Amino acid sequence: EPEVTQTPSHQVTQMGQEVILRCVPISNHLYFYWYRQILGQKVEFLVSFYNNEISEKSEIFDDQFSVERPDGSNFTLKIRSTKLEDSAMYFCASSGGRETEAFFGQGTRLTVV
Amino acid sequence: GENVEQHPSTLSVQEGDSAVIKCTYSDSASNYFPWYKQELGKRPQLIIDIRSNVGEKKDQRIAVTLNKTAKHFSLHITETQPEDSAVYFCAGEQGDKIIFGKGTRLHILP
């Protein structure tokens, strides 16, 4: 069964450093998302991406964040100058269209020290 | 924007009993309402969804009801089993984003 894959599974970074989280969505999907989940809390929407551009973003997704689909298969989230409060589980998801199931990857646990 | 409220935050039920989780949403334009189950340390996984043209949907022991006028929807799990223990999130889709509720931690007691 096709699934969304994310790498790495765990990333530890120094405060102020840049990180790139990588995702391979399901191949025929059209919508791509990044969510984050601080430990024990809810799943928070960051950004959605459709037709090679950002279609929606939340207030969390400020200038520190950017997304890219560099090669037609990978979908990346870059966090510039990480802060301690960026520590969370980051989930990538993809769906085939609106009002259809969004499939989540297994997540990348980001720890900023 | 869409705001999804979910309650209770924690729910304990005896194995074999039913569990009900309730959610409300704010955006009357929302038309799609998925429910996700998240086991400890795992990814959220869809268990059932409902669209606004339907009032109720059932899949084995799981059912979801939607009242579009009142802007609330509920998850019903019957004959609960130990493997139903998890965190359950309701969600509403607005535009190209899915907004999640805060989650309900369901404990199934032996």
Beta fraction of chain A: over 45%
Indicate the percent of residues in helices of chain B.
under 10%
Mean pLDDT over the residues of chain B? 95
Cα-atom Rg of chain B, whole angstroms?
13 Å
Helix and strand sequence of chain B: EEEEEEEEEEE
What is the distance, rounded to the nearest whole angstrom, between the alpha carbons of the first and last residues of chain A? 37 Å
Q: How many separate helices of chain B?
A: 0
SS strand fraction of chain B:
over 45%
Summarize the entry for a quick read:
The complex is a heterodimer of chains A (113) and B (110). Chain A has 113 residues and is mostly beta strands.
Description:
The complex is a heterodimer of chains A (113) and B (110). With 113 residues, chain A is mainly beta. In chain A, strands 2, 4, 5, 6, 9, 10 and 11 form a 7-stranded mixed beta sheet that branches. Chain A is globular, with a radius of gyration of 13 Å. Chain B contains no helices and 11 strands. Chain B is globular, with a radius of gyration of 13 Å. Chains A and B meet through strand 4, strand 5 and strand 10 of A and strand 4, strand 5 and strand 10 of B.
Can you give keywords for this protein?
heterodimer; A: 113 residues; mainly beta; seven-stranded mixed sheet; four-stranded antiparallel sheet; 0% helix; globular; B: 110 residues; five-stranded antiparallel sheet
What is the secondary structure topology, with strand pairs?
The complex is a heterodimer of chains A (113) and B (110).
Chain A (H helix, E strand, L loop, with lengths): L4 E3 L2 E4 L5 E6 L6 E7 L6 E7 L2 E5 L7 E4 L6 E5 L8 E8 L7 E2 L3 E5 L1
Parallel strand pairs in A: 2-11
Antiparallel strand pairs in A: 1-3, 3-8, 4-5, 4-9, 5-6, 7-8, 9-10, 9-11
Chain B lengths: L3 E4 L2 E5 L4 E7 L6 E7 L6 E7 L4 E4 L2 E6 L4 E6 L8 E9 L2 E4 L3 E6 L1
Parallel strand pairs in B: 2-11
Antiparallel strand pairs in B: 1-3, 3-8, 4-5, 4-9, 6-7, 7-8, 9-10, 9-11
